Amino acid sequence: MIQERPFDDRHPPDPALIDKCVHCGFCLPSCPTYVLWGEEMDSPRGRIYLMKGGVEGRAAMTDSFVRHFDACLGCMACVTACPSGVQYSPLIEATRGQIERRYERSIADRLFRRAIFSVFPYPRRLRIALAPLVLLQPVARRLQSSGRRSRDRPAEAGALRPSGAPRQSGILARLRAMMKLAPPVTWKSLTARLPERTAAAGAKRMTVGLLPGCVQRLVFPNVNAASINVLAAEGCDVVVPRGLRCCGALSLHAGRLDDARCFARSTIAAFERAGVDRIAVNAAGCGSSMKEYGQLLAGDPKWAERARVFASRVRDVSELVVELGEPRALRHPLDVRVAYQDACHLAHAQGVRQQPRDVLRSIPGIELLNLPEADICCGSAGIYNLVEPDTAEQLGDRKARLIDSVNPDIVATGNPGCTLQLRAAARRTAQRQWRILHPVELLDASIRGCPRSDLSDL
Ligand code: SF4
Ligand code: SF4
């Protein structure tokens, strides 16, 4: 159903932020959807123009109005590219908040989204949802390899033709996308438990709380284990508070702001009880939303200051390793070629680009490769690859070809969603075999002195 006036008075996009856009267009080449389709309204400038129309009552919340915002990946590459400092993140979050409340989606779309938001932010429910996959892994692998479509195509790295924005994907395409992205879960990964407290090796530098993440803890428990090993080896007591809920990242990025605030309050309270100096995060999307808690809870007198203090203590794990200063733990050589792919919510939303590279460079023997278009999103973007699978696949395939072009042994990236997206894209498109790991897994392997052959078993 179409609302006549797109935005109401409950947290519309801030006109002062909108007016900072001077329409220069510097952001256009960095925007994945503009790169794909060459359509102004699917560029940051076009979307900001639509927001302005909404705020001034010149636009209606039509299907096409909503479609331009649904197609946005929320990757924040435009924020990095913008010389005028336009803060796109609060603008798109406020716009999505309005769309969530005021636009009536089709029944199938609503049910699909409701299913995602009823399961993904709840680790217990997610564990139950993922459990059948343990038995269905062979079926999932078969489906995934039958989707391999590009091996025989010439590997034109980065080649994409503007083809016009696709219509919203139907339910079958979304379910197919879910199977293609199905993670490699095992009983061991689903039931892995992290120690509540791990003591620092040697004299303690600080106490760090680790966010285990909803997807990370069930699908990539090795990343959490590696984070604990590395931080403890570098002199931190590491605490994983029991009963942590979702940090609210999925809700925040989808405009479900009330849910996001509720998750934020419970996350803040849990880490306050743990009495930590820093909060380490190894999932870029979670880290970026936790650093935004100050803005998210600014209107709540009881929580605003607590949220601000909390946000100031949040660090990506690579950021924290660099902040700790002179390494204590010996790094053993790892003779591998590594391509580092920036996770958008780390590079663009948090401005953390150098630290993961510094962490990788601190490992003797690693050859760090420059990836073309490292700034452009791989198409994962939270739940984007589930709700917009066609666009996500195009971006994933493009990324896989670009990775192929530098011939790495390993791709390092700092977000579980990107890892799943790149795995699926590699199965479809890549000409070469490369493994995808979190930078902290490589650092842990180096500190533990793993031989190169063991990297494939991480
Ligand atoms: S967040 Fe990403 S997809 Fe959205 S407008 Fe900015 S660059 Fe484009
Ligand atoms: S670069 Fe910034 S100011 Fe220029 S059009 Fe894009 S958002 Fe607007």
Concise description?
This protein is of the alpha/beta class and 458 residues long.
List keywords for this structure.
458 residues; alpha/beta; five-stranded mixed β-sheet; four-stranded parallel β-sheet; 24 helices; 9 strands; 7% strand; globular; binds iron/sulfur cluster
Approximate shape: globular
**Poorly predicted sequence stretches spanning 5 or more consecutive residues:** 150-163
| Sheet having the most strands | 5 strands, mixed
Average predicted confidence as pLDDT: 90
- Rg from alpha-carbon coordinates: 21 Å
Can you count the helices? 24
Distance between the termini: 49 Å
Q: Could you give the count of β-strands?
A: 9
Q: In order across it, which strands form the biggest sheet?
A: 1-3-2-4-5
Helix-strand category: alpha/beta
> Beta-strand level of the residues, as a percent range?
5-15%
Helix content: 40-55%
